[in-house]
């Protein structure tokens, strides 16, 4: 079975390569830039924004794990339009595995809206697929909110809720779907615990023995309300085992 991982330089893509590196799978990887461990795989340059290299990357491939995404820039062009064009070249694909995000239809954020549109594009295609949503990665929450204290203080929206998950665990879950076959939309993959951002900040201070303080600042708006309400979580799907504390103790960034 020939497997293609797109977005091989991204956070999830690198975690997938880390899982595949010692496997017997025939894995090809593709991205705009070449990842550091590309020598262990057959790397093909491609660009989902322009379509360059995608046909070559997908040649003779059976299963695709589509880790390519662009949350900060050109998300509509890459995650929706680019995906649609990519799928039009994949009539031979037996299984298209699409990682998505928990709660995207309930959170008023442009990138999430585009991820939700992308799910619809895949569902309306003729490609056999599996869509699996995950909660936010531990490393994402830490980097976004807890990596740059100001004047020895974390100024954060402390009431935001997260059910963060280990990137490597989710990568393992995606790889496990390869032999199962296409299932459509399946159950979410959530982290083992739901915490407020304030609790996560205090935990980091304890684990790292920091002298920083936490200053919780409530934010206005619908986006803030969605995170305070925990619409990015799924308490019925505490699938992951690695806690945020364990992540901090054994930190590995992708």
UniProtKB/TrEMBL annotation:
<dbReference type="InterPro" id="IPR051207">
    <property type="entry name" value="ComplexI_NDUFA9_subunit"/>
</dbReference>
<feature type="domain" description="NAD(P)-binding">
    <location>
        <begin position="7"/>
        <end position="137"/>
    </location>
</feature>
<dbReference type="GO" id="GO:0044877">
    <property type="term" value="F:protein-containing complex binding"/>
</dbReference>
<dbReference type="Pfam" id="PF13460">
    <property type="entry name" value="NAD_binding_10"/>
</dbReference>
<dbReference type="InterPro" id="IPR036291">
    <property type="entry name" value="NAD(P)-bd_dom_sf"/>
</dbReference>
<protein>
    <submittedName>
        <fullName>NAD-dependent epimerase/dehydratase family protein</fullName>
    </submittedName>
</protein>
<dbReference type="InterPro" id="IPR016040">
    <property type="entry name" value="NAD(P)-bd_dom"/>
</dbReference>
